[in-house]
Design brief:
The chain is α/β, with parallel strands linked by helices and 340 residues long. The chain contains 14 helices and 13 strands. The longest helix has 20 residues. Keywords: Signal, Transport.
Length: 340
């Protein structure tokens, strides 16, 4: 069927991550213990195609016309009228609805350094919290009487039936690298297709302009994220990896791989080197290993550190800013850092 929503599809790359069990922002757990779907987690059989498959979802309705039928990760959902009371179940959905000018009535928090991404905090004052992104409070959601719930299979797939009994529920496959495709899907659910395409075009222009600032050899970028019991170098299939690809900025060492991330030990810290090093922590630095790593002599020996090109960035922007507002902020910050 012909779709009315314009889509810009990224090249199809189907490479599963070698590190099984890495989720978009926190540790994956055993499928029996999580409400999510491990098939779409990193290393799962559906991880590598999440962007391509999400791009096939959406609606055949004319922009802004209701009722409409939405094809999404869990099937088909009828939305009778333009949603006014929206509950969002992850940071990507939060960024997306706010980008489209819609303040949700309910949201979830994360286990990161900031429960709500700091760059969005001033826009959600008074919005009720309905649990964590992997542990929902269904009663709180029901009390809000939403007319649309937005989430993903990765986070709360096993609670889809309960959620859809409360209100029309639209799921993406997973957060993370398919953030542009997820945003289009959310735009379709809200009847804001035109605004969604415009926001993505603005982002694309900003990313290209960033890359165009470098006329000669472009600097290599290293992405280092400290997490409890994990040290990761982020690859192409991540929010920031997609942004760097869109800007045409090369990756350091072996980081330009079609995976979410590569995990290394502190003994292999040399692999984190690059012309520019951007690092952050998912949680408090003393609990993620960041404090210990930066005190390690191997860190001070990295050329990026020695040249003053290592910068600590906001984790809740660079890894949890899973929408156009967050992506544009990352592009802006990248431009400022790369000018130093």
């Amino acid at each position: 069927m012909k779709r009315t929503l314009a889509r810009r599809l990224a090249p199809v790359v189907v490479v599963l991550a070698a590190t099984v069990g890495i989720s978009a922002c926190s540790d994956s757990t055993d499928d029996a213990k999580t409400p999510g779907n491990t098939a779409v987690a990193t290393g799962g059989e559906r991880f590598g195609t999440a962007d391509v498959e999400t791009a096939k979802l959406g609606t055949d309705a004319a922009p802004g016309v209701f009722p409409r039928t939405i094809r999404h990760a869990r099937g088909v959902t009828e939305i009778p009228k333009k949603p006014e009371r929206v509950v969002v179940l992850d940071s990507g959905e939060l960024d997306s609805v706010l980008t489209l000018g819609i303040k949700p009535v309910g949201l979830v928090v994360t286990d990161g350094a900031s429960p709500i991404p700091t760059y969005l905090a001033d826009k959600v004052q008074g919005v009720e919290t309905v649990g964590k992104n992997t542990s929902l409070n269904l009663e709180a959601i029901a009390r809000l009487k939403p007319d649309l719930i937005l989430g993903s299979q990765l986070r709360v797939d096993k609670q889809y039936d309960q959620l859809s009994a409360i209100a029309p529920t639209v799921f993406s496959i997973r957060p993370g690298f398919p953030w542009k495709e997820n945003f289009r899907l959310i735009g379709a659910a809200l009847g804001e297709e035109t605004k969604a395409v415009g926001a993505l075009n603005t982002y694309a222009d900003n990313a290209r302009a960033l890359g165009a600032k470098f006329t000669g050899q472009k600097p290599t970028i290293s992405l280092v994220r400290f997490m409890p019991n994990r040290l990761r170098l982020y690859g192409n299939k991540s929010l920031i990896g997609v942004i760097l690809q869109d800007a045409g900025l090369p990756r350091a060492g072996n980081q330009g791989v079609d995976e979410l991330a590569t995990e290394i030990s502190l003994e292999n810290l040399a692999q984190a080197d690059g012309d520019y090093i951007f690092y952050s922590s998912y949680g408090k630095p003393e609990n993620t290993g960041e404090t210990a790593a930066l005190a390690n002599p191997a860190w001070s020996q990295l050329s990026g550190v020695q040249k003053g090109k290592a910068f600590r960035v906001d984790d809740d922007v660079w890894y949890l800013g899973l929408g156009p507002t967050g992506a544009n902020l990352i592009v802006k910050q990248l431009g400022e850092y790369l000018a130093k």
